[in-house]
Structure formats: structure tokens, C-alpha cells
Amino acid sequence: MRFLPTDEQSDFARTLRSLLGSAQVPAAVRAWADGDHGPGHELRSRLAATGLFALAAPEAYEGAGLLPLELSLGFVELGRAGMPGPVVESAAVSVLLSELGDEALAKRFLPGLVAGEAWATLTLPGGSPYALDADAAAHCLTVSAAGELRLAAPGTGEVLRSTDPARRLSRPSAAGGELLAAGPAVARAAAAAGRWARLLTAAQCLGVGEALLARTVGYVKQRTQFGAPIGSFQAVKHRLADTLLALEFARPLLWAAALSTAPGDVAAAKLRCGEAAYRAAMTALQLHGAVGYTEELDLSLWLRKARPLRDAWGTPSACRAEVLRSVTPG
Amino acid sequence: MDLTQTAEVEAFRAEARAWLADHVPASPLPSLETREGFAAHREWEAVLHADRWSAVSWPEEYGGRGVDLVKWLVFEEEYWAAGAPGRVSQNGISLLAPTLFDHATAEQRARVLPPMASGEVVWAQAWSEPESGSDLASLTSRAVRTEGGWLLSGQKTWSSRAAFADRAFGIFRTDPDAPKPHQGLTYLMFDLRAAGVTVRPIGRLDGKPAFAELFLDEVFVPDEDVIGEPGQGWRIAMSTTGSERGLTLRSPGRFLAAAGRLAALWREQGDPADTALRDRVADAVVGARAYELFTWAGASRFAAGGAAGAESSLNKVFWSEYDIALHETALDLLGADAELADGEWAEPWIFSLAGPIYAGTNEIQRDIIAERLLGLPKGRR
């Protein structure tokens, strides 16, 4: 039993952190929100060079094998940096095609996803009807309740505005589109993809929460009122202590979920990482005061992400129900 | 990274499980906080001790099994899962013993630890005073030098277990002229039945005498009962509160067992349409798992040479608030029966309510988290 990341795993996360830390991600997020995907695509290529996308595909298709733990540690860093784009969905498509066992389909899509040549996005039965960033994705896959996997017809339809302008939503057209596969194998692969999407969203949430906490701690140390840094006041300290507490107790749930990918573990991780990130956002907003309520401050890029990510790929309520199912015998 | 225990640890688990299955009393003992229950729990300590299960992490020479932190956590999991009684020796084993291992002489350890392990001597803590709670360093109870020892005078309060315990440990002011409040304090042990000691039990919220006031009037303490150097009491006591807040006061096993019982209660009595209550049951299940995993990560860090520092404050706030939420959820599931004082969940609920207060209030813990883990500036409390 050694329930800590290995040196190699920590080094990988550090590499991503430093790459993204100097990559001007906030500018890419603002461009993305304006429909300019160029800087986001550029970031995708740089991430691919670290091997990040290879962690969701088997070796036979240029991947590194399915490595949910390494991938999760990487997605914490994507969250911390505020990375735009369908990162979770692209990885979930990769997992779906890896699990499906259809060689022709795997060959057709996986090497390109691993190499970071394109984004992919996805909707699953029982999940959100909106595909994320389909206007920026080369492939938009849908799985129907009847177990049909389709490549949605080109042309994404109207982009619906999200409360996070950097998330661009649309309804994939239900009719038409190429039928890629059907049957129980699709349902099984879709379930795995859904579990991975939930896990990686949890990881992203943890990173978003940590970024919000770090920015807010920095702010309350330098903001002075009544002749003292506001961070010296107990009411401020205790909110931040609670934010750290929630994040620190969510992190081991994420690790355990990445180790097992069992539905109950993944749901528990998503629940706590999502809630911790959203609480971190509310604390960040309150402690920044009015300036935190502006879109001009880069803080807004994380503030607006926290709520949709908390709900994406498993609302708190859905996750709680899953947790109870997992501890119910029979 | 992994969560897999070695075959050796699993064998230890199996041995503990088998022993507990054979020995745990079939029906619950009377409340630990009554005279009758205290005596019954003391007998249970002797049963544990006879087969070296009362203090498994201690070296064998003192009655333990010399097991590491991982095995201790596994033992605790099995212990609480088996529905075994609460530990009347908890204060001694988790607060005084770690201090003795770090600061006492070999003679003191040999004299104090074995009767602690057997339950023959049950210990109470004597930290707080009427005017010194969170600001413990302001304490005024004093120990004055006398031939061969010290004379204790003053008042201690909120002394857990002291109504029925045998001995107590705490810190006393030995140098009133020291320049700072936390200097000039000395850590010592004393007999609760010595001449000059008056114990006045205090009824807890449910009326049970779970703690007491101690009035001390020139109580003689021999030099052999001073731990460490006189004047070093604060430093020594802080290492004890570190253990208390850290991994050894409330093991995850206790909460995993309670969450398991809560989930079972939900399945038996819960209204599936009451999703608000369902969500709280799920939160209790997740909370126990989070606490367990946080502890495994801490144990792994410890095994890799790290030390428990201010992180123990995160731990203390988490379990104490978790414990209340869990019990409140159980009471809500019980409906009208929640009110019955002899119900299975009533006394544990009352007990949980003290958690955010003792062992350093959660307000103090949050200050520590903010200042030492987040680096926020010190301010007025």
C-alpha cells in the first residue's frame, strides 16, 4: 500500500503545469469564447507532445495504454490552467473507441486523437443532450438510447450560449449522420466512456478549485482594509480554511477513483471534487469583493467554469444516487 | 500508487477479525460515562490486554504487538466493524502514551505503560482551566518546588473521564516569572486519589458525568512523575495535541463502521422518495470513504519519512463535523424514535456534539489551517 503518486507521476503533472503556466491560457480562453479556436488548437498540439492524449488509447493505436491515473493527474493541471475545449470529451471518445473493439473504427480515429490533430466531442444516452464545442471538433459522436453510435452530420446547428462563454454547446442532429456501430458492445463502451468522462471532469474540477483558492489566497494577502490585509481577519481565514479542507478531502477520492474506475468510486470523486470547486468559486467571488464580479478580471474564467463542470457528466444528485447503489448489496 | 495491502497485513487483519468475533460482548456494555459502565469497560480492557490487543502499536515489552501505522489502522477498522466497545483507556493510550514514548525515561515507561495497557490504571487529561480554554498557555495552576517533588495547587476543568479515572496528566506553571506565557510550564502526572485532590464530576449535556472539575490543594507529586525537563511542558504538550489531532485519535474505522450502519438503516427504514435524506446518507458514505483515503495518503506520507504537521488540523475539523452530520442523519431517519434517549444513535449523537470543541476548538484549528497551510497573516483571534 502506497497511496501517493509516484515520482514519475508527479513529474508528469509538473511538466504539464509548467507548460500551461507559461502558455497564456487565459488569452486562449477568451479567444475560444469569441469563436476563435486557433490558440486553443495550438495548446492542444503542445499538450499532445507531452503524451497526454496517448493515456486514453491502447498501444496498438499509438497510445500508451489506458492509464486513468496518469490521465487524471494531467486533467487536474488542465483544470488549474483553465484549459478550453472538449478535452474531457475527446478523451472519452478515445476510451469509447478503445473499448468498442472495432479495429477499423479504432484505426480511423484513434491515432489522430492521440497525436492531438483534432478534437472530438460526444453525447451519451442519459447524459446532457448538448455536445460541448462541436463547432471546434473534427468529430462529433453520439450514442442513442437504442445503442447506435453515430458520427453526427457536419454542421453543428446553432451554438447555444453557456453560462461559461468558453463552453460552446449545440444539439447534434439526431437524424442522419454515419452509423458507426450498434448493439450491446456500443452500450458497454459508452458506459466506460461515461465513467471516464465523469472521472476526468472530477479531476478538472479539483484543478479549477485549487486555482481559485490560490488566486484568492494571493488576493487577501495583498488587499488591505482597516489598516490590515483582509487575510488576517478570522471570517476571511475560516472561509479559506474550509475551501482547502474540501479540496484536500476530495483529492484522495479522485486518486482512488482513478485507481479502480468503479462506478461508486468515480461518482464519489465527482461529487466531492465538483462541490469543492464550486464552493471554492463562491468563496473566491465573495472574498474578491466587487472586482471578482467582473468579467474583466481573469478570475472570471475559472469562476464561470466551476458550476457547469460540477454538473457535467454527473450532477451531484446523480452521483449520490450512484454511490448508494454501489453500497447496496445485490 | 496502490491501495493493496500485503499478505502479511491481510493475515494480521484475519487474526484480529477472528479474535474479535470470539470476544466482543454479545450485547453492548452500559454507557462508558456511568460508574457501572466504566467498570465494565475497564474489564473489557483487561480482556483485550490478555491477548495483546489493547495497544497493538506499542512495543511488545509494554504489552503491545509493535505493529506499524498501517496495521494499527487495519486493527481499528476491524475493531469498529465488529461493534466492539468504546475505549475507556483512550486518553492514556492516544494522548499520554505518545508523550511517554517521545519524552519519558525508560523507568517511567516501564512503570506507567503496562498498567495503562491492562486497564488497571485509567487516565484522565487535565489541560483546561476555568480561565484558560483555547488560550491554554495562559493557565495559572501551579506546581511549587518541595523536597523530592512538587506541590500542585489550582483548578483544572473539563477533565474527560476524571469522574472515575485513577490518574491524570497535564501542564502546570512552575516558573511564574518566565517572560512568555508558554514558558515556565511543566508536564506531570498525578494521582486523582492523592491527598489534596477534590474531583467534582460534571454532567454532560445528557447528564452523564463524562468529565469533571479538579480542585488541587498542595497535592504532592514526586520528581519521578515529571515528564521531560521542568519548564519544557508546553513543547511536550503540543507534541501530544499533535497526536491527538492527527492520525491516532479518531481512526477511519470508527466512521466506516458508523456509515455502514447508517446505510443499512436507510435500506431498512428510508423512504426512497425522500431524496433529501437519501443525499445525506450518500454524503455520510462518501465522507467516511474520504476520511479513510485521506488517512491512507497520510500513512503513506508518514512511511515515506514525512511528518504530521498542521495537516492534523484539517483532519480534526473534518472528522468532528462529519461525525455530527452522520448522527444527525441517523436521527432524521429514525423519526419520532430519534428522541428516545436509550436509542442506539442517541448517546453517540450527544458524544459527537463535543467533537468540534475538544482537542482544540475548530475555530482554533481553522486559524492554524489558514496561517500554517495557506500562509495567511496572523491576526487577533
TrEMBL record, chain A:
Q: Does the keyword Oxidoreductase apply?
A: yes
Which SUPFAM superfamilies does this chain map to? Answer: Acyl-CoA dehydrogenase C-terminal domain-like (SSF47203), Acyl-CoA dehydrogenase NM domain-like (SSF56645)
Cofactor(s) needed, names only, are: FAD
Can you tell me where the transmembrane regions are? none
> Residues in domain Acyl-CoA dehydrogenase/oxidase C-terminal?
195-316
Family that this chain belongs to: Belongs to the acyl-CoA dehydrogenase family.
Which positions fall inside the Acyl-CoA dehydrogenase/oxidase N-terminal domain?
Answer: 6-117
Q: Which InterPro entries match?
A: AcylCo_DH-like_C, AcylCo_DH/oxidase_C, AcylCoA_DH/ox_N, AcylCoA_DH/ox_N_sf, AcylCoA_DH/oxidase_NM_dom_sf
- Tell me which Gene3D superfamilies the record gives: Acyl-CoA dehydrogenase/oxidase, N-terminal domain (1.10.540.10), Butyryl-CoA Dehydrogenase, subunit A, domain 3 (1.20.140.10)
Q: Which PANTHER family match?
A: ACYL-COA DEHYDROGENASE, ACYL-COA DEHYDROGENASE FADE28
Name of the featured protein: Acyl-CoA dehydrogenase
Q: Native species of this protein?
A: Streptomyces amritsarensis
Q: Entry's Pfam families?
A: Acyl-CoA_dh_1, Acyl-CoA_dh_N
Q: Which UniProt keywords apply?
A: FAD, Flavoprotein, Oxidoreductase
TrEMBL record, chain B:
Q: Which cofactor does it need?
A: FAD
Every Acyl-CoA oxidase/dehydrogenase middle domain range: 124-217
Q: Where is the Acyl-CoA dehydrogenase/oxidase N-terminal domain?
A: 6-120
Enumerate the InterPro entries for this protein.
Acyl-CoA_Oxase/DH_mid-dom, Acyl-CoA_Oxase/DH_mid-dom_sf, AcylCo_DH-like_C, AcylCo_DH/oxidase_C, AcylCoA_DH/ox_N, AcylCoA_DH/ox_N_sf, AcylCoA_DH/oxidase_NM_dom_sf, Mycobact_Acyl-CoA_DH
According to the UniProt entry, the coiled-coil residues are: none
**Pfam families registered for this protein in UniProt:** Acyl-CoA_dh_1 (PF00441), Acyl-CoA_dh_M (PF02770), Acyl-CoA_dh_N (PF02771)
Name the UniProt key words of this record, in alphabetical order. FAD, Flavoprotein, Oxidoreductase
Every copy of the Acyl-CoA dehydrogenase/oxidase C-terminal domain together lies at: 231-374
* Similarity remark: Belongs to the acyl-CoA dehydrogenase family.
PANTHER family in UniProt: ACYL-COA DEHYDROGENASE (PTHR43292), ACYL-COA DEHYDROGENASE FADE29 (PTHR43292:SF3)
| Protein name (record) | Acyl-CoA dehydrogenase
